[in-house]
Here is the input.
Amino acid sequence: AATPRWQLLLLDTMVEQGRLREALEIWSRLVGVDPQVRGGGLYDPGFEGLPGPRPFNWSFELGPDGFAESAGSGGLLAQYYGRGNATLASQLLLLSPGAYRIGFDVEGEADGEHGRLAWVLACHPGGRRLVDLPITGVDFTGKRLSAEFSVPDGGCPGQWLRLVGTAAEFPEDQQVTITGLRIA
Here is the structure.
């Protein structure tokens, strides 16, 4: 069932106002998930289509520059055409300050030279980048990618995790399936 528009507006407004914990509690109640169990980390890391609207669940884009969707087999299918910059998937996290590692398995075609896909984690508010993990050198044999990052003590109460496409002068399609996404 589609989420009522007023719920999305309420959550978006609270996030813009910096009322992140309060927004997560309301989101958890709307979805019927215990806020303590939900925590502030990654939700639906297997892209199985767990219940709940953005911003604390995946928001997938479908546009002229590409799309992302659940692969059905437990994973994220992303197709990026390399012609314009695009955010294909996003989720708001509330990670506590400390050291983390993001990792995932990927297969498909993504050389990174004719348009680039990357997982980018940035502070909200402020937009300071904590990690930029490019998906490059990927072919059909598959690859495991990971990077370490730290959430600072102050000024970064929330973090946007986004799958971002960056355009290239001579674009080519990049198509990947991402599985096993984890932040620990």
